[in-house]
Amino acid sequence: MTPSTAETVLFWVLAPVMVLAASGLLLTRKAVHAALCVITVMISLAFLYVAQEAPFLGVVQVVVYTGAVMMLFLFVLMLVGVDASDSLVETLRGQRWVGWLGALGLGVVLVGVVGRATYPSAVGLAEANAPGNPTGVARIIFGQHVFGLEVVGALLVTAALGALVLTHRQRLTRVVKQPERAAARVAAGARLTPLPAPGVYARHNAMDVPALDPAGNPIDESVPRVLRIRGQEAGTAEYRADTYRRAVTAVLAERGAVGDGEVDAALGAVADEPRPAAAPPGTTTGPTADIDLGGGSTRTETER
Amino acid sequence: MTLTNYLVLSGILFSIGAATVLLRRNAIIVFMGVELMLNATNLALVTFSRLHGDLTGQVMAFFVMVVAAAEVVVGLAIIVSIFRTRKSASVDDINLLKS
């Protein structure tokens, strides 16, 4: 019995892919890439099993290894942190070289022995697989190896329990629920409303542009804290109420004063004013009341 | 091509898995190396099963798969609990008994 031509082609397509993917496991820096390489090897192995007259094992390979084991690996990777990379410090001196040498020696010995040994002529599984491969395998498992199967079942239960025990964490403190958090926040006098979104009323609505208050002054806390700490907040002067400035200019132009100085003076007066706190509804407070913006002039300004 | 090719491929995969176990420091990648070695032995078992015309080899490969699944569950749980206490998944950092 010799492998068919189709099987030969399949082998020579899959074998380099598998060796490359296995080397990827050895050489890639990121653990996620290593996991993807191992998945490639395992799926290729499933193809080889089916080609080698073991369709049952091929299916089990995909279901158990690629489906369950590698997904478990990926879950743990996400849990532990995908960027967990290798340390480059050698704790054992020369361990790297010894490791390479040992692995290379093992490979040479294995390939040499396995490749040069003389095997009996291959029998093939046509006869054993006559009632169907799963049936044949089941007859052996539930015939000769029934006790082994029971032991394996006990092992699986033990493993599941062991995983539960190993990852169990005892709660040391009481659970703090949402009403308690809210009460604590009110008691501490912290801000109760959501923070303003970045870019509101400004000329851009990018994340780093602070929102503007009614007077056109930037609100620092509208920019995400991370950007503020990194110093990536956009310059506040750049995004000051530009439309507001233009409106003030227009009003002043109507009054006859057109110089930049007058505008700056008016805006400065606005900026220096203390920000009005919560105003009762209906009353006009803030700078808009002080600088009388004629309705007509603002409209022409926005239309321009 | 003969069935020896499969056995040679199995040997190559096994030694790459062994190299991964010896050389990598990330515990999860080391564990994947162990899985690769188990898979390589499974390929050898399936090939020998075909060589001898006996399905027992496939049954052995099946048992190896089941035991490997149980082993992965426990091993990953150990890695997770070590990561929780040591904040590291590197096998070099687990020297609690030293010093």
How does the SSE layout of this entry go?
The complex is a heterodimer of chains A (304) and B (99).
Chain A: H1 5-27, H2 31-51, H3 55-80, H4 95-116, H5 133-143, H6 146-167, H7 178-188, E1 211-212, E2 218-219, H8 225-230, H9 242-255, H10 260-272, H11 287-290, H12 295-303
Helix pairs in contact in A: 1-2, 2-3, 9-10, 9-12
Chain B: H1 4-23, H2 27-52, H3 56-86
Can you put this structure into words, describing what you see?
The complex is a heterodimer of chains A (304) and B (99). Chain A is mainly alpha-helical and 304 residues long. Chain A is 60% helix and 1% strand. In chain A, helix 2 packs antiparallel against helix 3 (55-80). The longest helix of chain B has 31 residues, at 56-86. By secondary structure, chain B is mostly helical. In chain B, helix 1 packs antiparallel against helix 2 (27-52) and helix 2 packs antiparallel against helix 3. Helix content of chain B is 78%, strand content 0%. Chain B contains 3 helices and no strands. Chain B has helices at residues 4-23, 27-52, 56-86. Classes of the chains: A mainly alpha (304), B mainly alpha (99). Chains A and B meet through helix 1, helix 2, helix 3, helix 4 and helix 5 of A and helix 1, helix 2 and helix 3 of B. Chain B: It is a multi-pass membrane protein. Chain B: Keywords: Cell membrane, Membrane, NAD, Quinone, Translocase, Transmembrane, Transmembrane helix, Transport. Chain B: The chain crosses the membrane at residues 6-23, 60-83. Chain B: It comes from Cellulomonas pakistanensis.
